[in-house]
Amino acid sequence: MSAEMNIARARMLLEGIPGVTLSGEGPILTVETPVDQFAVVGAMLKEKVGCLFFAFLTAIDHKEAGLEVVARLDNLDSRVCVMLRTKLGAGNTRCPSLFAIYRGANWMEREAFDMFGIVFDGHPDLRRMLLPEDWVGHPLLKSYAVDTPYPPYR
Amino acid sequence: MAEVRAIDYTGSERLTMNMGPQHPSAHGVFRAILTLEGEKIVGVDAVIGYLHRCHEKLAENLAYVQYPSIASKTDYVAAMSSELAYVMAAEKIGQFEVPKRAQYLRVMVNELQRVASHCLWLGTWCLDMGGALGGGTSIFLYCIRERETVLDLFESLVGARLLYGFHQVGGVRYDPSAGWAAQCRATIDTIEKRLLEYEQMLDDNAFFEARTRNVGVISSALAQDVGVSGPLLRASGVNFDLRRDQPYSSYEDFDFKVPVETEGDCHARYRVRMVEFRESIKIVRQALDRLPEGPISSRPGVKSLGQVRVPKGEAYARVEGPRGEVGCYLVADGSQKPYRMKWRGASFSNLAVLPYILPGVTVADVVAIMGSVDPVFGEVDR
């Protein structure tokens, strides 16, 4: 299937879901979803649009506006790239997990939990990925100063 | 660990074995907690992060002119590709122009880097699998010898052998001096000849075949699901190469083949990389032949921190590095530093496939599989 057909299909499928907005041009499509639709839309993109390749998942800290989760999904045959994004809202740290859809989300979500403290509902094994288990805080939050002391190194 | 040994339903003992974090075949600091039944692996818990420096936080605190030289420290055996990913992301947001000569130089150093990186991969992999390969140590020393000559090229180009700081936003920082092209041609000619010697040592070698055929098979569905990229993805039958399919930095001007194998085992990864060696050498030759005249950067040399200001916006730039898709997702807020930067380390996603392919293999196979995945822990842990 060509890129145009994939994009048209994604638009047709996703525009019906309340709260989902689509933007972008060419083969790069940005899909913004409400938090509760995040995994639903992810599953649709994999099954119906053929975005089989899980490139990465991460988050952005918008300070007062809260956290935003970003995932990049590719269709390697037709070269369609989808940026799947959802704003968690101020104070909210819960997000549906993509683990059941993409196995690559396993480590990526653990890293996002480690760095931002986002709890992915449905992830079977949400532990810190890169930092030791006794680490305090989540370093990539904007509220975490780069020179925060860590015992015993002060 | 509370439960070190437990009796399973068959009556045999399960053993928990700690592999690493200082295991020589891990190519860095990687710890795998293996659950064994006899010599067979039934469970894997991979522990990473020993080399974590929080590059993403560092990037938020360093200006666009400072970070490229730090970017080389993510994947330190292929520093050129991670630098390129970072500057390309900044150039995408700011729509900075890159002169044609700089684009060709970028292609050239990236392909040389691929040759150097694959040399290290082949040497260390065969060393891991041991002397049964008709002398694992010999092939290691041969490969390192060839890699040194490529590093010599980088040294006379940049002044550094491992971490370069070659790229800058808007172009590159160094122009080859007179005589560099001749040195480069001589080097790649030698390497091309020696590749044949390696293949003569390994192809049809019964031990090599036994260690690599049907070992660590990754299906194409699993590879895409986990986000495995580069030679591993192509060895699993997915015909995708960013250089050909989403060309950047004038890759569309070059003529090269993309090797694809369907078996998905260690031997398929070996074959893919051996072709990539030769294709990279081909690209370097083409770049040397057609290197355009002109400036090497659209922006002046770095003098002050605030020199590069990237407008508000975001971009994802990706580069086909030696290990796969090296991606840099950059969110800019209009100041001299990025607001947020995410590294997609190719090794991180490639390594994430291990928990799915290790159950069922023996401990000795873990060594062969780890070597064929070719992880660099600077890039896994970032």
Structure description:
The complex is a heterodimer of chains A (154) and B (382). With 154 residues, chain A is α/β, with parallel strands linked by helices. Chain A has a single domain, classed as Beta Polymerase, domain 2, CATH 3.30.460. Helices cover 23% and strands 28% of the residues of chain A. A 5-stranded mixed β-sheet of chain A has the order 1-2-5-4-3. Chain A has a two-stranded parallel ribbon with strand order 6-7. In chain A, a hairpin with a 4-residue loop joins β1 (21-23) and β2. The radius of gyration of chain A is 17 Å and the shape is elongated. The model of chain A has no long low-confidence stretch (mean pLDDT 86). Chain B is 46% helix and 14% strand. In chain B, the strands form 3 sheets. A 4-stranded antiparallel β-sheet of chain B has the order 1-2-3-4, with no helix packed on it. Chain B is globular and about 70 Å long. Chain B has 15 helices and 9 strands. The chains are: A alpha/beta (154), B alpha+beta (382). The A-B interface holds A 52-56, 58, 60-61, 70, 72, 76, 79, 83, 102-104, 106-108, 115, 128-132, 139-140, 144, 146 and B 48-49, 52, 54, 56-58, 60-61, 221-222, 224-227, 238, 240, 245-246, 316, 318, 325, 327, 329, 331, 339-340, 342, 344, 348-349, 352, 355-356, 381-382.
- In CATH, what is the homologous superfamily of chain B? Cytochrome-c3 Hydrogenase, chain B
Oligomer: heterodimer
Structurally, the number of domains of chain B stands at 1
Give the structural class of chain A. Answer: alpha/beta
Q: Between the first and last Cα atoms of chain B, what is the distance in angstroms? A: 27 Å
Averaged pLDDT of chain B: 87
- What would CATH call the class of chain B? Mainly Alpha
What's the mean pLDDT score of chain A?
Answer: 86
Find the count of extended strands of chain B (DSSP E, 2+ residues): 9
Instruction: Decide which structural class fits the backbone of chain B.
Output: alpha+beta
Query: Number of helical runs of chain A?
Result: 3
